[in-house]
DUF3311 domain-containing protein (Streptomyces luteoverticillatus), 109 residues
Amino acid sequence: MSEPPEHPPGRTAAQASADGHKPLLTVGNPVLTVPLIVAGACLAIPFVAMLWVDSYARLTPALIGIPFFYWYQMLWVLVSTLLTVVAYVIVRRREETVRRERHAGGEEE
């Protein structure tokens, strides 16, 4: 299996560094961190919950006359929205931290 390129596609390493592009792979900046794992889990949880149909394929308990099957799925629309917002905030904070570290280290974007 070959390694991914260290420069943007269609450009040589010399062209990329001359234009100020940063390498895609960096040693001091791990790609997978705990906050990013949490963000991924926030995005994966709704999929697992909705794909596990046996957990909600029933009529009771009803909520204001709406069968469980339906209100449970509508509840997950709201929960999914909240989890997506949490994942978005986590990723944006991570990106901002990396940007600040690069700027403090004397690198330009």
Notes: The two ends are 30 Å apart (CA to CA). The chain has three helices and no strands.
